[in-house]
């Protein structure tokens, strides 16, 4: 008998919904169908694939209210923000469709007498996409749409916290007329997912999740070596993203946006701001402005239209965040937000007040590890060189932001930062026309942009002698 996955809503700790685990027999059938469908789908003209993706986008738009409601229910994002993920999904899918014709076009070198030469972008076959709960639609669309447009079949494993994201994708593709077998959704335990990773039916993997999860994926794929078969994997594994506020920054703009980058989605963003380095000459002023911003958030039931800060996804996550804050305070950190000002903050729940800590350093877990909660550490730096050194003093390298009116300085600093994306005067945003990638423990590979299509295909060269 199939196991049930119960989704515990962080809103009230109750079971919000249940889905059945995919049985081994169902998994096997889906893998077989995906392999078979990939053969015909890759031969389908790109124009037809684009039409189907266009219809998929319209279906997702049509379901905006329904999808937004499930985001709030399953992972606690305030309802006033939940629809933004649907719009972001549409934005990214639309952009990838616009990029596809150029990205998938043949690469033709300069003419050479007596020869025809080209490089084609060939789909891998079946792509296994594993998406997390914090942005279940946005993370999935990064890989699913380029994979489909490239001519691959796709198997999506959504997080068991947000299983309806997969079902919404499946239903939208079905309504859009995607041929049977090209897209599947499987609900699985980590153990069963590991078996799928090791199956010869899988030709490429796109994983978004924790560092530990990325390591588990890598180990599962490494097990193929005995079969002398190797496949690629794109791994987006989160971050501990820094911000640098220079002395010439617009402090009001910086404080508002840095704190939004730290607190949006209750701090549960892979590219959320977790460390802030501020020029010593404006440090006190910035901390005051940032604290005022944090105190302006409203923590409460995410279904309430006034709420701007919802619960984190689970009480166990909240407990871990509280321990990290407490450990830092015990080590000498100073708290700037009074949790008592947020009545919804309760130690026996997933509701946790925002927090700003100063007098913190890199020896503290709060600074060195990914906290993934509504809190941030702010530190003073003497100069640009110190800021660069501290920003790079991390096991992660997803994004970094520089807050300054000097574009030349931002470019100079950005060139020295170990990160996949460097922002000036903004943060916590994915531009679908730019490559989304990380370095160090933030992972490998890329999604989005023209480069993202290279992840979902392999090059195949044609070298024809025409004169013999």
Can you tell me the CATH superfamily of the largest domain?
Aldehyde Dehydrogenase, Chain A, domain 1
- The CATH class name of the largest domain reads Alpha Beta
Number of helices: 15
- Tell me about the largest β-sheet: 7 strands, mixed
Q: What's the end-to-end separation, in Å?
A: 66 Å
| Gross CATH architecture of the largest domain | 3-Layer(aba) Sandwich
Q: How many E-type strands?
A: 21
Q: Which overall shape is indicated by the principal axes computed on the Cα atoms?
A: globular
Instruction: Identify low-pLDDT runs.
Output: none
Beta-strand residue percentage:
15-25%
CATH structural fold name of the largest domain: Aldehyde Dehydrogenase, Chain A, domain 1
Description:
The protein is an alpha/beta fold. It folds into two domains: 258 residues, Aldehyde Dehydrogenase, Chain A, domain 1 (3-Layer(aba) Sandwich); 191 residues, 3-Layer(aba) Sandwich (Aldehyde Dehydrogenase, Chain A, domain 2), CATH 3.40.309.10. The chain is 40% helix and 21% strand. The strands form six sheets. Strands 11-12-13-10-9-15-16 form a seven-stranded mixed β-sheet, with helices on both faces. The protein has a six-stranded mixed β-sheet with strand order 6-5-4-7-8-19, sandwiched between helices. Helix 2 runs antiparallel to helix 4 and helix 2 crosses helix 6. The longest helix has 25 residues. The radius of gyration is 23 Å and the shape is globular.
Index terms:
single chain; 468 residues; alpha/beta; Aldehyde Dehydrogenase, Chain A, domain 1; Aldehyde Dehydrogenase, Chain A, domain 2; globular
């Amino acid at each position: 008998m199939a196991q049930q996955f119960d989704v515990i809503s962080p809103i009230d700790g109750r079971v919000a919904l249940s889905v059945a685990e995919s049985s081994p027999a169902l998994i096997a059938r889906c893998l077989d169908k995906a392999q078979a469908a990939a053969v015909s789908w890759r031969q389908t003209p790109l124009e037809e694939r684009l039409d189907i993706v266009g219809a998929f986008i319209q279906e997702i738009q049509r379901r905006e209210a329904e999808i937004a409601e499930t985001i709030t229910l399953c992972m606690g994002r305030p309802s006033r923000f939940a629809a933004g993920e649907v719009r972001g999904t549409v934005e990214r899918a639309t952009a990838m469709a616009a990029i596809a014709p150029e990205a998938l076009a043949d690469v033709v070198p300069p003419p050479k007498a007596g020869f025809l030469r080209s490089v084609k972008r060939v789909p891998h076959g079946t792509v296994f996409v594993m998406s997390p709960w914090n942005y279940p639609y946005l993370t999935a669309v990064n890989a699913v749409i380029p994979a489909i447009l490239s001519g691959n079949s796709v198997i999506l494993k959504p997080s068991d916290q947000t299983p309806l994201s997969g079902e919404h994708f499946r239903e939208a593709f079905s309504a859009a007329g995607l041929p049977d077998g090209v897209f599947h959704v499987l609900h699985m335990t980590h153990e069963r997912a590991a078996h799928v990773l090791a199956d010869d039916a899988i030709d490429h993997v796109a994983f978004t999740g924790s560092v530990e999860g990325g390591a588990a994926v890598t180990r599962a794929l490494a097990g193929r070596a005995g079969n002398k078969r190797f496949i690629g994997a794109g791994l987006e594994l989160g971050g501990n993203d820094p911000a640098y506020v220079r002395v010439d920054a617009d402090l009001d703009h910086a404080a508002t946006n840095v704190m939004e980058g730290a607190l949006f989605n209750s701090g549960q963003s892979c590219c959320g701001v977790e460390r802030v380095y501020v020029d010593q000459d404006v440090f006190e002023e910035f901390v005051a402005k940032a604290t005022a911003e944090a105190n302006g958030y409203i923590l409460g039931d995410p279904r309430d239209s006034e709420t701007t800060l919802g619960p984190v996804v689970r009480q166990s996550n909240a407990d871990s965040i509280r321990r990290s804050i407490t450990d830092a305070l015990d080590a000498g950190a100073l708290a700037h937000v009074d949790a008592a000002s947020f009545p919804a903050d309760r130690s026996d729940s997933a509701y946790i007040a925002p927090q700003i800590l100063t007098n913190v350093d890199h020896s503290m877990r709060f600074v060195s590890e990914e906290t993934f909660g509504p809190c941030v550490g702010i530190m003073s730096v003497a100069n640009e060189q110190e800021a660069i050194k501290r920003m790079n003093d991390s096991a992660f390298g997803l994004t970094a932001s520089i807050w300054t009116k000097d574009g030349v300085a931002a470019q100079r600093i950005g060139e020295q930062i170990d990160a996949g994306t460097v922002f000036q005067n903004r943060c916590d945003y994915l531009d679908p026309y730019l490559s989304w990638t990380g370095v160090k423990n933030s992972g490998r590979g890329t999604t989005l942009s023209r480069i993202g299509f290279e992840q979902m295909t392999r090059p195949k060269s044609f070298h024809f002698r025409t004169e013999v």
